[in-house]
Amino acid sequence: MPIGVHLRVLIVEDSEDDALLLIEELRENGYDPVFERVETRDALEAAIRETWDVIIADYRLPHLSGIDALAAVRALDPDIPFIVVSGQISEETAVEAMRRGAQDYVLKDNLARLGPAIDRELREAKTRRARRQAEEGLRRSEQILQSIIDSSSAAIYLKDVDGRFIILNDRSARLLGTTKKAAIGKTDFDFLPNEAAERNLRHDREVIEFCAAREYEEPIETEDGTRTFVSAKFPVFDTAGEVYGVGGISTDISELVRLRRELEHALERERHFSRVLQRALLPTLPDMGPGYEVAAEYVPSAMGGEIGGDFYDVFRIDDRRAGVLIGDVSGKGIEAAATAATIRSTVHAYVHQSASPSSALARTNSVMCLQPGDDVIFATAFLALVNLRTGQINYAGAGHPPAVICRADGSVSMLHLGQMPLAVLDGQDYGEHADRLEPGDTLVLYTDGISEARRHKELFGIEGIERCVQGCCALSARQVADRLINAASDWTEGALRDDAVVVAIRRNGE
Known about the structure:
By secondary structure, this protein is an alpha+beta fold. It is about 40% helix and about 30% strand. The strands form five sheets. It has a five-stranded parallel beta sheet with strand order 2-1-3-4-5, with helices on both faces. Strands 7-6-10-9-8 form a five-stranded antiparallel beta sheet, with helices on both faces. It is rod-shaped, with a radius of gyration of 48 Å.
């Protein structure tokens, strides 16, 4: 022990001489004691309000017993070292003093034990104080944590690996129909229907098994009906890295679930309305007369939702001529569908007036350029007039993908056209081109939902269309249309992500 270690000592002793003997013994053990001696209860109660390093008390005093002194000290300070010193003390009395909180006892005829006893007890007192402070800090932290989680509208809880509640907040207790105190040590099976409790236990075990956070939707029956919670569950580890419990934060999403269902129903109604309206906008295919067959197919996007802007029309001009129109309006929805209907009716009118596809497209373009509105809407189109007696085709295009003729000999002709789409710039000359459908030939028109079908970043493209229709000379118009749609769908490894139209007109062999 270093010389002169400062030590504040309270001595409970009626004999001043005995007190001085104690002080001398402390000095011999290397302490520099500052002390006060008391011998009555009042003096003791006043003295112990000061700060002392150790208290040494005689067991028998005229006005105060050592046990009473010990009780008074422990009421104020549970950690300060308290050592009983007596001229004579039985083993039973010593044990009782230790049981009541004394750290040691020393006989007055063996004061050599006093210094080592104080050395030990000062160290242990320091340890006790540190532990008590840590425990108090932990309790304060737990109280703060409990206050925080109790203020949350989410249900927050911690369970052990067997599903017993260790911690839970007020919201959790209310959902279980109990109190926090009553829930501790219990499981979901004590409060919830078996089906819900088994589901929760299954989810908890998954978190434990995979040592990973998971998220679940967990409906719970309450007094207000079924409530749906999204539960974020996570493993809790001990200092050895082993899972000792499962934490959970369950947020009530019942209102979101209700709104989601209403939205899904509304979207489904909208999709149904769109499908019905789209079908209503599709034209009825005319009788092309002997020697010709026609097929058309509209395939809505797999994404569903709004009405598409793809359109087509096949119509008789007179007893020897027919027109075929295909196009795609930018955008979707009612406005796109209305624009498509306007283009169809306008083309019809001008074809009957001029019998020229390029003139009909040019005049339709002028009409569309004059349409009011701030939104920029344009449309691609391909228009062909077919002489049903000779097979002569006169055609013009407005920015639409090239048409295809599948020849009777198995070859393929692409009817490439440039030109600007409709409704972009007035005064366009769309030009006019001619070809011929021989017996066994099939004219195939399509929208960009076919040519721009994607497999990852690669388009089906014109090359894919050529590959598909080569060798289709023996197929009917319906078979050709179906084959092209199926090929484009297969290319996407699923379903088409954009609306698509295919029209096929076949001149049968003579």
